[in-house]
Amino acid sequence: MVVVDEEPSAYPVEIEPHFTFGPDNVYGNSGVGAGLRVSIPIVSSLLVNVPDNLAISFGGDVIHYDNCYFGSECGANYLMLPVAAQWNVFVARRVSLFAEAGAFVYKGFFDECGPGDGPGCAAPSDFGVLPTLAVGARIHMGDNASFTARVGYPTITLGVSFL
């Protein structure tokens, strides 16, 4: 069991189920979905007198987008698989901040366009690799659980982390 007061950065793994929000620049409308992240600390105590660690973070998100550009009746689902280096700094007894950078692989699955195949029905790229960059914070509810928020590209997430 991890004791936050002694060494908050010393935990073996973090599991983070979350809700995911996608930007509207992908498919013409904002997307919503869910995902899971797993972070494994690989280096501790990079800073002197401040608890911190460097972790490898990976996982997956499924995001659904409704309505293509120009109001067409079609949609898309994306599977996004991020891998990032995550630097965690425990700034207060119940608050930690993190920054992460890496890459994600995405795969899009598209609905058929509606009648007329309007100008908004051209599907965006359905497979690729892009960079990811985010900052976030955790409000620790106890030794082993926290509310977690992440803001960045390509998604925003809100969830609960279990250490």
Question: Mean pLDDT, as a whole number?
Answer: 85
Order of helices and strands: EEEEEEEE
Instruction: Please identify the oligomeric state.
Output: single chain
The appropriate CATH architecture is Beta Barrel
Distance between the termini: 9 Å
Q: Percent helix among the residues?
A: under 10%
- Structural domain tally: 1
Assign the structural class, choosing from mainly alpha, mainly beta, alpha/beta, alpha+beta, or little secondary structure. Answer: mainly beta
CATH class: Mainly Beta
Largest sheet: 8 strands, antiparallel, barrel
Show unreliable segments.
1-5
Strand order of the largest sheet: 1-2-3-4-5-6-7-8
Here the CATH topology equals Porin
Tell the overall outline.
Answer: elongated
Radius of gyration: 18 Å
Number of helices: 0
Number of strands: 8
The share of residues in extended strands comes to over 45%
How would you describe the overall organization of this protein?
With 163 residues, the protein is mostly beta strands. It has a single domain (14-162), classed as Porin, CATH 2.40.160. The chain is built from no helices and 8 strands. It has strands spanning 14-22, 31-44, 52-66, 75-92, 95-110, 127-140, 145-153, 156-162. Strands 1-2-3-4-5-6-7-8 form an 8-stranded antiparallel beta barrel. A hairpin with a 4-residue loop joins strand 6 (127-140) and strand 7. It is elongated and about 55 Å long. The model is unreliable at 1-5 (pLDDT under 50).
